[in-house]
Amino acid sequence: MMGLALEAARSCRLVASPNPWVGAVVDTGERQFCGATSPPGGNHAEVNALESAGPLARGADLYTTLEPCAHRGRTGPCTEAIVAAGVARVVVAVEDPDPAVSGRGVAALRESGITVELGVRAAEAAELLAPYLKHRRTGLPWVVLKLAATLDGRIAAPDATSRWITGPEARADVHRLRAESDAVLVGAGTVRADDPALTVRDWQPPTGVAPRTSQPLRVVLGSAPPDARIQPALETGGPLEQVLCELGERGVVQLLVEGGAATAASFHRAGFADHYAVYLAPALFGGDDSRPMFTGAGASTIADLWRGEITAVTRLGSDLRIDLRSRLAGG
């Protein structure tokens, strides 16, 4: 049942933010009714599942990937809807760290006489909700640092030409990352050099996944020309932590950093990248005069080498995407 709830959560990944993308299932023993989080202002997953089940929810079990809310925001408390529906048992994957929810939803259900079980498939739910969980715990967005390079770690030729190192499948996958993100950030140098649009264009969500209805916020570190394709954009600057705080306050739960070598290096060295998406093409510049992934000085000794964890390797056409997670990443 929790597997069905996780599938429902994935189906609303692109439309729920800044709310959590949650899935819920009402199980009567004979029938199952699924619900997913509606776009902001709409029903939460639990209410959608309960409305789908109708009177059959009485005495049933409800499975949800995140602790039901017990406070009134743009919608009423999910706990009240669960109690009113007569649900007998609620199974929760992970508790919600949001201060308005944390523990209150579980307590409210138990006080109403409903049996509550916690931690079913918690690791999978926490992985799916990692950006949301970090945002609620720290106020900062989950930062995905995207890098595209040749096998010898180079991103541009000595004359600055760089399009295209990777193939169309890899580029489409980058558009998927954009679709999953609330904001996309580049440095002003990338805007001047490449004039990117940073919109979601070359990727369509799979069947059953609701498509996003708006483009992610576009962010420039520095200033962009008024006629740049990235406009309208948020132009910002200052310490990166201040930038991330500002974006977090704006409701940016996941930030995709697509900047050039200088921007990538600044996020990497500051330890602000939670997840690295590295696209590698089967190509070699074969020298040290082409441009590297990062600018500036790196680790001065092997003891200072940054080490993460490879979480996935995916073939995309003739390219590879290697997913790396910082060992310090919050989730």
Number of beta strands: 15
Strand order of the largest sheet: 10-9-8-11-6-12-15-14
CA-to-CA gap between the ends?
23 Å
The computed structural class is alpha/beta
Tell me the overall shape. elongated
Look at the structure and give the mean pLDDT.
Answer: 93
Structural commentary:
With 331 residues, this protein is an alpha/beta fold. 27% of the residues lie in helices and 24% in strands. Strand 1 and strand 2 form a beta hairpin. The chain starts with a helix and ends in a 5-residue tail after the last strand.
Write the layout of secondary structure elements.
Elements: H1 2-11, E1 23-27, E2 32-36, H2 45-53, E3 61-66, H3 78-85, E4 89-94, H4 104-111, E5 115-118, H5 122-128, H6 130-138, E6 142-150, E7 154-156, H7 168-180, E8 183-187, H8 188-194, E9 217-221, E10 234-236, H9 240-249, E11 254-257, H10 261-270, E12 275-281, E13 291-292, E14 308-316, E15 319-326
Parallel strand pairs: 3-4, 4-5, 6-11, 6-12, 8-9, 8-11, 9-10
Antiparallel strand pairs: 1-2, 1-3, 7-13, 12-15, 14-15
In short:
This protein has 331 residues and is α/β, with parallel strands linked by helices. Helices cover 27% and strands 24% of the residues. The two termini are 23 Å apart.
Tags for this model:
331 residues, elongated, alpha/beta, 5-stranded mixed β-sheet
